[in-house]
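Researcher: Good morning. I'm working through a list of sequences from a screen, and I'd like to move beyond sequence-only analysis. For each chain I'm collecting a predicted structure so we can compare shapes side by side. This is the next one on the list. No need for commentary yet; just the structure.
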Amino acid sequence: MKRSNHLVKLIIFIGGITLLTSCFPAYVAVRPLPPPIVVRPEPPHERAVWIEPEYVWSRREHAYVLVPGHWVERRGEWIPGHWEDRPRGSVWIGGHWR
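Model: Good morning. Structure tokens for this chain:
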């Protein structure tokens, strides 16, 4: 019983650390190249909103990777992502709905 109790605590601890580290921004000294210019396809319906290509941090590659632009259902006003310069380097601020 004690052994399984320690195992549960260890799993919760590791999960908490993983969650916390995934919340911190990933700083880079050199920003990736800007996304290529693409022709938007026709919207699938009238409520569709085009999401420009966005960067996401890849823990596997230890770098920002580009997610292609795509259409989504409107859920408010889309605020596009952008690069922000900070003392430790540049960080991508992801787009979000407002």
